[in-house]
């Protein structure tokens, strides 16, 4: 039997200035015990401009909270105005980086090829991608969600080494459930997360499939997290809106209780 440590990550999106970021991290730390933080890997994903503040708050108080960024450049530095290279994120103590969030796929036309390059750039900088996949409403209504998501998984993982595949976190986020208050049912989440794990098993074997953590994302809150986490192939959650409130996010992290 394999145990995968649950991972709950809060995607702040373009919210919270550095003062608000500091406050939220302090409140979160005050709301969670060492035991709770040991049981569930707890991650915050602030805007780039808050990373130094979050680093200072977490390192200064030796908090067992980890953090990461919401995007990464495919390039490792150079003449790419406005881009943030992975090395800069690693230097700021980031552990994770979100790659291929549906808002970036949609508003910035990020392709599967670019997302694959960003997954590789993350590993090259010593970061772990939280690699996002998920179908839009039309695809869901046509019943093609599994096929669509597996194609995204195949493309995003192309060329990664076994040691990298074993570390990656995959976030299944049905686009129609993000920020809409519409949560996929636990059965919907399990259908796709189970299909992702089956694909990992088929392509890379049990050494990868058994250890990769797969998150569900889409209107997760304290009231629905436990039922979602009860599903065998769901190992965590990527939380947007509900991660902006320290007490609510802490309640989500306390889901095992
Ligand atoms: C997200 O942005 O990854 C997300 C899941 O958002 P929300 O929880 O607000 O639906």
UniProtKB/TrEMBL annotation:
<comment type="pathway">
    <text>Carbohydrate degradation; glycolysis; D-glyceraldehyde 3-phosphate from glycerone phosphate: step 1/1.</text>
</comment>
<feature type="active site" description="Electrophile">
    <location>
        <position position="101"/>
    </location>
</feature>
<dbReference type="InterPro" id="IPR000652">
    <property type="entry name" value="Triosephosphate_isomerase"/>
</dbReference>
<feature type="binding site">
    <location>
        <begin position="240"/>
        <end position="241"/>
    </location>
    <ligand>
        <name>substrate</name>
    </ligand>
</feature>
<feature type="binding site">
    <location>
        <position position="179"/>
    </location>
    <ligand>
        <name>substrate</name>
    </ligand>
</feature>
<dbReference type="Pfam" id="PF00121">
    <property type="entry name" value="TIM"/>
</dbReference>
<feature type="binding site">
    <location>
        <begin position="11"/>
        <end position="13"/>
    </location>
    <ligand>
        <name>substrate</name>
    </ligand>
</feature>
<dbReference type="GO" id="GO:0046166">
    <property type="term" value="P:glyceraldehyde-3-phosphate biosynthetic process"/>
</dbReference>
<comment type="subunit">
    <text>Homodimer.</text>
</comment>
<comment type="pathway">
    <text>Carbohydrate biosynthesis; gluconeogenesis.</text>
</comment>
<dbReference type="GO" id="GO:0019563">
    <property type="term" value="P:glycerol catabolic process"/>
</dbReference>
<feature type="binding site">
    <location>
        <position position="219"/>
    </location>
    <ligand>
        <name>substrate</name>
    </ligand>
</feature>
<comment type="similarity">
    <text>Belongs to the triosephosphate isomerase family.</text>
</comment>
<protein>
    <recommendedName>
        <fullName>Triosephosphate isomerase</fullName>
        <ecNumber>5.3.1.1</ecNumber>
    </recommendedName>
</protein>
<feature type="active site" description="Proton acceptor">
    <location>
        <position position="173"/>
    </location>
</feature>
<dbReference type="InterPro" id="IPR013785">
    <property type="entry name" value="Aldolase_TIM"/>
</dbReference>
<dbReference type="GO" id="GO:0006096">
    <property type="term" value="P:glycolytic process"/>
</dbReference>
<dbReference type="GO" id="GO:0006094">
    <property type="term" value="P:gluconeogenesis"/>
</dbReference>
<keyword id="KW-0413">Isomerase</keyword>
<comment type="function">
    <text>Involved in the gluconeogenesis. Catalyzes stereospecifically the conversion of dihydroxyacetone phosphate (DHAP) to D-glyceraldehyde-3-phosphate (G3P).</text>
</comment>
<dbReference type="GO" id="GO:0005829">
    <property type="term" value="C:cytosol"/>
</dbReference>
<dbReference type="GO" id="GO:0004807">
    <property type="term" value="F:triose-phosphate isomerase activity"/>
</dbReference>
<keyword id="KW-0963">Cytoplasm</keyword>
<dbReference type="InterPro" id="IPR020861">
    <property type="entry name" value="Triosephosphate_isomerase_AS"/>
</dbReference>
<dbReference type="InterPro" id="IPR022896">
    <property type="entry name" value="TrioseP_Isoase_bac/euk"/>
</dbReference>
<keyword id="KW-0312">Gluconeogenesis</keyword>
<dbReference type="InterPro" id="IPR035990">
    <property type="entry name" value="TIM_sf"/>
</dbReference>
<keyword id="KW-0324">Glycolysis</keyword>
